[in-house]
Please model this.
Amino acid sequence: MARLGLERSVVDPTVYKNTVARFREAGVLLPTIGQLKDPSTIPAAIREKLKDVNPDSPHPLNLFRVHWFNDDQRTGLTDVPEHIELPPELTGVKARIVLALGNKFPLINAHKVLAAYGCLVPRLVTGQFDPTHHRAVWPSTGNYCRGGVAISRILGCHGIAVLPENMSKERFDWLDKWVTDPADIIRTPGCESNVKEIYDECAALDRDPTNIIFNQFCEFGNYLVHRNCTGAAMEKLFHTLTKGRPTAKLAAYVSASGSAGTLAAGDHLKQSLGARIVAVEAAECPTLLNNGFGDHNIQGIGDKHVPFIHNVMNTDMVVAISDLHTDSLMVLFNTDEGRKYLVERRGIDATLVKRLANLGLSSICNMLAAIKTARHLDLGSEDVILSVATSGAAMYTSEIEKTLARHFSKGFDAISAGEVWGRSLAATTTDHMLEMTHTNRERVFNLGYYTWVEQQGVSLEEFSVRKHQSFWDGLQDLVPAWDAMITRFNAETGVDKVLGA
Ligand SMILES: Cc1ncc(COP(=O)(O)O)c(C=O)c1O
Model:
């Protein structure tokens, strides 16, 4: 099980010793998962020091900002995650649809830096990654690898980004600035859904023992940080939104799945608040819905495979959204003509319209899936649907230009805005969705066999045990075990004392 990141004791004492020495020298203190779940538990001395740290600098203290409770400026703390509530005038449904904003995370303006930390930290404190010797390889569709590269740089080690060549220009521009060597950006063939090509590249890199692959699609650290940190943040958000409304219910948690890490918050929300778990994918590549395949542009949500850390047997609904709609709405939300239409023609509050810039392509996808869920379940005003906006529109300026050139070559005017509204938002219905019966869940679960057992060499036993909820719940024991190891590791580096933590 070593390759799946499930260790709870030191695997290699020499590697561990080297890592402790490097962290001592670089003054790096590791936050526990508990601290990232509830940042009010971060020592006051650290919080004070953070006030002078730029959230986008490769400063070790920024690791203490890898959580959902950064304020709008990303310098201070909030009691409740920054979020956007989409009104019925926009969504056309009565249910309250609320997205937590991932672009308030430090370093990369996306919550995938949490997944990167979740995959790395167990390896560090169990002596499986030596920053003085190993290279950290981050296979991704763009945001996870940016998180990994940022953290690698903080640790003073070599980080390698592996991502498809067709990802947005803004991702590559960011990587160009952060990698130590341009050769550390590896472009794999194809687009968003070409995950197999990413795996093939990683298999080649894995032949060199100095490369350590942090495969977010199968590392349970990714699952656990989201189940615990994102889950708790969402729960807090729900309670804040529904204060004084005893009949309010969390009807669903909706998340487009790339690695399925973010989806793991659903396991917590189902347990604590009875929420349904809705997994979302691109209609152009309906792998979960229909065993389908194809290219799409909802950047970040991969597909053509079922991630190993997707708790399929606990998934309640699957929804597919077309990238025609996410691309078009991205233009509607982020052009003067589009914003004018939303405010003047549709009467949507101008401040809210400006805030729609917090939504990237997969966030708009989540919004549409939430609308479909509300329609399908006939939800009312006491029903809440929570979701996430992984990254904001800033990551997709070049994609807006492409969509304008492709679909609106004569210009994007008021008529185009009305067409997009009618076709991509108002017409959102209950097509391309499936309630997951036991049979449907088994069908999707079994599909994962071909990737993980046949292709990636996972044993049948490791694959099959994931069918049972006791396996996923049992993983929770790792969190206190890892946190104890992080605390011990910090004590051994002595950086805790240096920082007064
Ligand atoms: C923009 C964006 N949206 C959604 C996702 C999917 O998140 P997850 O991998 O946690 O399923 C990703 C993952 O990289 C992403 O970058």
In short: Residues 112, 115, 140-144, 256-263, 299-301, 360, 362, 390-391 surround pyridoxal-5'-phosphate (CB under 6 Å). The chain has a mean pLDDT of 96.
